[in-house]
Amino acid sequence: MHAGAACQGGALVTKVIDFRTDPSRYRHWRVEYDGDVANLYMDVDENGGLFDGYLLKLNSYDLGVDIELADIVQRMRFEHPEVKVVVMRSGKDRVFCAGANIRMLGGASHAHKVNFCKFTNETRNTFEAAEVDSGQKYICAVKGSCAGGGYELALACNYIMLTDDSTSSVALPEVPLLAVLPGTGGLTRVTDKRKVRRDRADVFCSIEEGVKGKRALDWRLVDEVVPNATFDETVDQRAKEFAAASSKPTGKGIALGPLERTIADDGSVTYSLVEVDVERDSRKVTITLKGPDAPAPSSIEQLHAQGDQSYLLRLARELDDAILHLRLNEAELGLVVFRSQGDPEAVLAHEKLLTDNEGDWLAREILQFWKRVLKRVDVTSRSLVALVEHGSCFAGVLAEILWAVDRSYMMEGEFEGDNRPIATVTLSDVNFGRFPMANDLTRLQTRFLGEPGAVEALKGKIGEPLEAEDANAAGLVTEIFDDIDWDDEIRIFMEERASFSPDAMTAMEANLRFAGPETMETRIFGRLTAWQNWIFQRPNAVGPDGALKRYGSGVRGDYNMERV
Amino acid sequence: MIDLMNVSYDTQIPNNVGLSSDKRVLKALEKWHPGYINWWNDLIPENFQQSLVYLRTAVSVDPKGWAKFDYVKMPEYRWGVLLAPHVEDRKIPCGEHAGQPAWQEVPGEYRNMLKRLIVIQGDTEPASVEQQKFLGRTAPSLYDMRNLFQVNVEEGRHLWAMVYLLHKYFGKDGREEADDLLRRSSGSEEAPRMLGAFNEATPDWLSFFMFTYFTDRDGKMQLESLAQSGFDPLSRTCRFMLTEEAHHMFVGETGVGRIIERTCQVMKENGIEDPYDVDRIRSYGVLDLPTVQKKLNLHYTLSLDLFGQEVSTNAANAFNAGIKGRYMEHRIDDDHKLVNDTYSVCDLEGDAVVRRDVPALTAINMRLRDDYSRDASGGVGRWNKILEKAGVAFELKLPHEAFNRKIGVFANKEFNPEGKLVSGAEYDAGVKNWLPTHADGDYIQSLMVPEYEPGKYAGWIAPPKVGIDNKPGDFEYVKLHMA
User: How many CB atoms are closer than 10 A to CB B229?
Assistant: First the structure.
């Protein structure tokens, strides 16, 4: 099969990066459950790198380590709803985490680095938001050196405890050491989340050895500094206190079983509810979302009984996996086409069971998961287009896809020889606040930034299946085409899109997608990431004599001193 | 006869594109056609609309079918959609896709570029009809009036040809562009035609002949380039249009030729040897040769402007994309990609006109303009033969390409017709001898008196050597409706 997007040491790695894992396969993390507290140990296996050519020394990580972390965070939500506090610690003696593995970064292709950073950013965001979204608070217990990506892990936790052993420190040494940025949210969280004074942040980010003890506390780099002798005890105590203060609804978790998929020779992927059709010549992939294959559960109990097989959870997991798979393994498929086929009423029925039971932890988690999946779509750097065809089911949560994509096209009127139900778009309550984007606005608010009244007016159309002309008049789709025009217009759009420079497309789309206010999240995905990706292209970091390449040789990077 | 309210679009429109089974185009044409008929009716004076004109209609593309002659009222002319026959295995003739099979559908990558080219070409077709709308009233003969209307209906058909492409291949955008072709209007302040030369009036018959000779020849060169397109439907459309375009240039060349012939005849009859003895020549009601030269200067230079900038990225892109080739691309012996070739283009170095080599890809416009100039010089040579034969010591010349330009490196600089940069004072002093003056215009207008009697010709123009469709000299080419 076709595969391989990662490039190690210049060689194409024809290995499919698989995002599916489970605790039996973890090599780098372990979790100990203790009632409402979970202790999460980072204990990276040096020899467990995703690719050859580097050792994951000093608890440094690569994409493989992060895939496990993402799995843990996800399972914590669904399999362990009883957990209210997660304590992140190191399983090693004198080091918390040294951050992303430098040799891995030095050898990785630009595209791999970018996708790696994006995924790690998404994972950080996920456990950071777990407290607000689900009442699962991540606290970080730092013992030993906590540097770079290590401190970025800590920054994404909502309470940082540092032992005062006169050596343990937190640090962002990227700039002095590697000539790159703390790009996984580091710079942004220091200023925006922890609100460290900018000149102190400047000092902090310029010193390799970082800051320890009382100063770390004074500068708000950590929330608590604890004498070493009582550190473990105090961490346990804090965890219990936080857990006791949480009013998180709990219950018995559900198991997230293995995600079944088959990959055909041409790279097409089949899940139970998601079809991924690859057309390599046209650099296009079509993701078809299927409507419910069973009626909505009649009760919340039945939803729990269905567990990971319930429609909206299964669909979200499959879509999430499909997107990640395409991002890392199919770099040349630049155009992603979303379709759906199924009964929109049935989609809304499944959705309604969740929204009617917001107090139930599982219902809430499924909706929160959709929020994350949709955000994952938002920041996917491919040209995204949705086709609202006859027989499609873009209703409620699935309609969000229409406003996540760059353009949408809808069938208008009868099509000869097509007896599927006429294409419609149906709004539901969830479109008005349940799925905020990174800019903290809904997709509709973002879409109608210049006409806020339009969003209010759309509320009047909730539940009404809107056919093409109405959907178009309401501004919900880009264009509508009838039987006569459809094939040609769609073909030509896709050919044109696939012919543009992928770089220009990525940049244009990223700029157009996130209108409106900045948030910490948009600043991380926009500003910080863009600057980091710029640095990742510059010889001072990645050239043969750049800092990333020379790291570990004892010789500093040879910099071109011209300011750009 | 076509019932305008109930046109059966699939059978009454001559076509070889399977119109009857093409739902998309039929639907689009149904919406567009009434606007077209309105446009036509608003344009051509009513008494001419009702007149029977002996016109050539193309009903098919084979040699027997493309020139059917009969009397027809112009609004009932059967504008058709005809493409040159499909050539098996045709390949893209130039650019980075050279050698690949010609596109039968619009390649999405080049959609916008193609659409722009077709719209610009399409915009010129109705424009010339608009420019010529008053000429019927001053036709020097029924023969000439018939030729004018023939040119007009064929420009109309060429508009149809471009509209067909827009309707067939460019979806919603294409339909909007087709509507805009009727919305823009020559010389309009609100929505003028796209190219400058097509907003100039054609106030008299000398202008008309010069226009059909020089400006329609630009059209020919553009069509020749588009006939080399890798987009096969465009290529086929343009190839067939070229067969009709040839007639327009024939009208121009013979029209100017007949004027020269008549002037020479009158000069000889009256013993005038000096062609610059303008007042005397004019006293006999014919067009003096210096005025003919001035009109030539004007129309030639306006037409040169239609070729755009000498060095053009747009033209390079279109060539490289394979959607517009060069004149006679298939006869050119090179790689048809112009990867490393150069071409010499005009440029200005200080006061001097020089030619310098640039990448050939960027000089596509310049090359086509050079081909045009060569092509245009042919007829000028034949006009001079008439002068020579008549023993009149006068030679018509194409002016230097730097003269009177509004586009390109020479734009808005004072060159004389020999291509020498002159001072403002020299230019002011010379321009009355180089370009038609208002007084010249007044004189020409004074000659524009209609001659509607069959077989008769206005005094400033000689009869043609042969009639259209071999009709005799007194044939009634237009049966005027005199309401």
Answer: 28
List all residues 6 or more positions away from B88 whose beta carbon is below 8 Å from its beta carbon. Answer: none
Residue B320, token pair as written in the block? 């490289």
CB A1 within 8 A of CB A14: no
Residue ranges of chain B whose CB lies within 8 Å of a chain A CB: 23-24, 27, 105-109, 111-112, 169, 171-172
Cβ-nearest to B172 among A489, A491, A498: A489
Contact list in B for residue A468 (CB cut-off 8 A) is none
* Equal CATH topology for A25-245 and A268-513: yes
Q: How far is CA A233 from the centre of its chain?
A: 34
* Topology at the third CATH level for domain A25-245: 2-enoyl-CoA Hydratase; Chain A, domain 1 (3.90.226)
| Cα–Cα nearest to A277, from A337, A321, A340 | A337
- Checking if the pLDDT of A500 tops 50, the result is yes
- How far, in Å, are A108, A412, B168, B169 from residue A484 at the CA level? 48, 10, 10, 11
Q: B108 vs A498: CB contact, 8 Å cut-off?
A: yes
Domains and CATH numbers, chain B: 4-325+368-398+436-479 (1.10.620.20)
A281 touches chain B (CB under 8 A): no
pLDDT-derived band of residue B285, with 50, 70 and 90 as boundaries? very high
Q: Domain ranges for chain A, please list them.
A: 25-245, 268-513
CA distance, residue B23 to nearest chain A CA (Å): 7
DSSP output for B177-198: HHHHHHH--TT-SSS--SSGGG
Q: How far apart are CA A300 and CA A280, in angstroms?
A: 43
Q: Which residues contact A220 (CB under 8 A, 6 or more apart)?
A: A194, A195, A196
Give the model confidence (pLDDT) of B182-234 as tens digits: 999 998 888 999 988 899 889 999 999 999 999 999 999 999 999 999 999 99
Tens of pLDDT, residues A370-422: 999 999 999 999 999 999 999 999 999 999 999 999 999 999 999 999 999 99
- A284 contacts in chain B (CB < 8 Å): none
Question: Rounded to 5 degrees, what are φ and ψ at B299?
Answer: -70, -35
Tell me what pLDDT residue B63 has. Answer: 76
Chain B neighbors of A502, CB-CB under 8 A? none
Topology of domain A268-513, CATH: 2-enoyl-CoA Hydratase; Chain A, domain 1 (3.90.226)
What is the DSSP annotation of B24-75?
A: HHHHHHHHHHHHHHHHHHHHS-HHHHTSEEEEEE---SSTTTS-EEEEEEGG
